[in-house]
Amino acid sequence: MSAQVDLEREPDSDTDLILLDGQVPATTIWPVAGGKGGTGKSTLTANLGVGLALLGYKVILVDGDLGGADLHLFFNQISPPRSLGSFLTSETRSLRDVLLPTPTENLKLICGGNELVGAANLSYLAKERLIRHIQTLDADYVLVDLGAGSAYNTLDFFSLSNQGIVVCTPEPQARVDAYGFIKNTVYRKLRRRFARHEGIKEVINQFAKQSGRRTGRLCALVEMIGEADPQAGRDAEDLLHSFRPRLLLNRVRRRRHVDEVHRFLDLVQEYLSVKMDYIGYVRSDEAILEACERRRPVLLESPKASASRDIYTILMKGLRVSDRLHRFTAEDAGKLAQVAKTEARFW
Ligand SMILES: Nc1ncnc2c1ncn2[C@@H]1O[C@H](COP(=O)(O)OP(=O)(O)O)[C@@H](O)[C@H]1O
Ligand SMILES: [Mg+2]
Fold it and tell me: Where along the chain do its domains lie?
């Protein structure tokens, strides 16, 4: 990777962004990742986004899967007229200019675009510009759909928030990949945090290569960082403490699958010193596949399907999003189906 650039520094003058103290809009950003491919990241990004819009929020969905963009397919966009590609190649100055409307007024889309295959390794500067623009989009919620794997782009986009969503399925392989993804994110965060601290960088590298390990647990690394520099040790501890990713279990077929989640969360806490919040499950449901074929989100295609009901529950109970229009509470999340049914007429 090329030179490290501080994410927090002032924006470049070549953008039209004005970032003054206190003027940054209060936008909640939820990156959606998962380690493994096919766990349902895009499906859930699309549907959580639709659900948030039905709850009365302004929502923007960003397709951040630079190698395999397909989020637009849920919105019946076969060949999007504008996409992230033109923003990344600087043809378009502002990310706002590539926003696409959907039939739901408060839900907008930024497509990935197929020309992005070659951009799977973005330069750090291009990534920094994209992150900065995402952070200042005019929305209550910005959901960013990410690709599989642990490419730097994916780890950096996931780090847009400390509360990103990890989508996992019940297969052991998916858990292994989700675990690896969280671990890689933590290492990436630590390396970035101490990018200018040669001594600590070396401690991290040695630990990562296994040679410097006392135990396999990340708390041992934090201890070693603390021995090298007590302040850096406290910073590393804070970094791990403030990282609270969420876990969403998708394609659940048995009760047992949900029980196994808690063992996974304990493992992540024990070995990576990361506390994850479990936000709920979505059952395996034919209705998702059927909606997919019709290029529509299941929430609108089949508002009463079990997968749709699970998504309402995740939104209102797991993620604790309240209905902005005060029509119902988390206890009657099912009423969102009625709202979805009405909205589906516009699609
Ligand atoms: N809960 C579910 N039940 C049934 N099929 C699902 C479910 N979630 C996702 N799928 C299907 O799994 C496939 C992969 O989903 P997708 O969202 O594209 O995954 P990813 O973005 O993680 O690669 C799609 O065909 C999708 O329709
Ligand atoms: Mg996807």
Answer: 28-161+285-344
Distance (Å, whole) CA 72 – CA 110: 8
Tell whether the model's pLDDT for residue 113 goes beyond 70: no
Distance of CA 288 to the CA centre of its chain: 20
Torsions phi, psi for 165 (to 5 deg): -105, 130
SS3 state of residue 101: strand
Give pTM, 2 decimals.
0.91
Tens-place pLDDT, residues 184-218:
999 999 999 999 999 999 999 999 887 556 677 99
Pocket test for ligand 1, best of 288, 290, 314 (most atoms within 8 A of CB): 288
- Crossing angle of the two packed helices 218-228 and 198-208, in degrees rounded to 10: 150
Q: Helix, strand, or coil here: 184?
A: helix
List Cα–Cα distances, 197 to 112, 194, 229, 239, in angstroms. 35, 5, 10, 16
The binding-site residues of ligand 1, defined as CB within 6 angstroms of any ligand atom, are 34, 37-43, 250-251, 282, 284-285, 288-289, 292, 307
- The CA angle 165-5-139, to the nearest 5 degrees, is 40
User: Domain 28-161+285-344 adopts which CATH fold?
Assistant: Rossmann fold (3.40.50)
DSSP output for 37-82: TTSSHHHHHHHHHHHHHHTT--EEEEEE-TTS--GGGGGT-SS-SS
Block residue for tokens 């070693």: 224
Please give the Cα distance from 61 to 57 (Å, whole number): 12
Which-ligand-closest: CA of 295?
1
Atom of ligand 1 nearest to the CA of 34: 22
pLDDT category at 2 given cuts 50, 70, 90 is very low
